[in-house]
């Protein structure tokens, strides 16, 4: 099977309520403020008529201002967000590096969470046990691996999540921005591991505002603006297109 991403006229909508109310408490507060006034919920058209094909060997950079649709696009490709219409075909094992806190059980230990997160990634318990010590060593959190996750600092949680998520590569690698994962020593290890995953992946999609990194890794660039693709071509041309769309003089 040839690894590929094929999208034809893909549209994706969000219910606006999903953005406005982050918790039950905030929802109740807003309802009290409105004092019974009815508020119309309008869907947000997050991706608009997206069509493209990405094949083996391609390294694709995704550009766009915050809210332009890059992260939504990656999560749609990963299968986390269902499309509203169009055609989505993704062939190959997908590994994504975003939402690193997903799958952690606060009351369980770090060691137990290695297993839980592995299951969420579609990996077997036997396999996760086989790489457990490697993950523990890479995360570098010492004896805390046997403490509940809720006792960890934010940095420790990210380091463990990063170690688990990158322990296994995939045919299609999805990366969303650079990950802040702790001290300089760990960041050096993290960068080396990411570059190794990039090297081994058949297809790479990298969303970033770091144009230097994009141009050093990617040959193709796709620019998003208000949920639409406004440029798809050479990475240098993509950077120029982004600058023009955002009124940036070069």
Automatic annotation (TrEMBL):
Tree of life domain: Bacteria
One Pfam match: ABC_tran
InterPro entries for the chain: AAA+_ATPase, ABC_transporter-like_ATP-bd, ABC_transporter-like_CS, ABC_transpr_TagH-like, Bact_Polysacc_Export_ATP-bd, P-loop_NTPase
Signal peptide: none
Family indicated by similarity: Belongs to the ABC transporter superfamily.
Keywords assigned by UniProt, alphabetized: ATP-binding, Nucleotide-binding, Transport
Lineage per the UniProt record: Bacteria, Pseudomonadati, Pseudomonadota, Alphaproteobacteria, Hyphomicrobiales
SUPFAM superfamilies: P-loop containing nucleoside triphosphate hydrolases
Keyword Nucleotide-binding (UniProt): yes
Domain spans labelled ABC transporter: 32-248
Protein's UniProt name: ABC transporter ATP-binding protein
GO terms of molecular function: ATP binding
């Amino acid at each position: 099977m040839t690894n590929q991403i094929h999208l034809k006229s893909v549209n994706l909508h969000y219910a606006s309520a999903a953005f406005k109310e982050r918790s039950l408490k905030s929802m109740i507060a807003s309802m009290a403020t409105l004092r019974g006034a009815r508020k119309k919920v309008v869907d947000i058209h997050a991706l608009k008529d997206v069509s493209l094909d990405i094949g083996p060997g391609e390294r694709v950079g995704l550009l766009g201002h915050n809210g332009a649709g890059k992260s939504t696009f990656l999560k749609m490709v990963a299968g986390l967000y269902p499309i509203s219409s169009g055609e989505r075909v993704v062939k190959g094992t997908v590994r994504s590096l975003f939402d690193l806190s997903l799958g952690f059980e606060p009351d369980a230990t770090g060691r137990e969470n290695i297993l839980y997160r592995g299951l969420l990634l579609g990996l077997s318990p036997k396999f996760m046990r086989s790489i457990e010590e490697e993950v523990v060593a890479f995360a570098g959190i010492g004896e805390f691996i046997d403490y509940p996750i809720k006792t960890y600092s934010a940095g420790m949680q990210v380091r463990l999540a990063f170690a688990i998520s990158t322990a296994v590569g995939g045919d299609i690698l999805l990366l969303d921005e650079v990950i802040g994962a702790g001290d300089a020593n760990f960041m050096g290890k993290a960068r080396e591991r990411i570059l190794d995953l990039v090297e081994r992946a058949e297809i790479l999609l990298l969303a970033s505002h770091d144009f230097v990194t994009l141009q050093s890794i990617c040959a193709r660039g796709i620019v998003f603006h208000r949920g639409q693709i406004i440029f798809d071509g050479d990475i240098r041309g993509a950077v120029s297109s982004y600058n023009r769309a955002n009124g940036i003089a070069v």
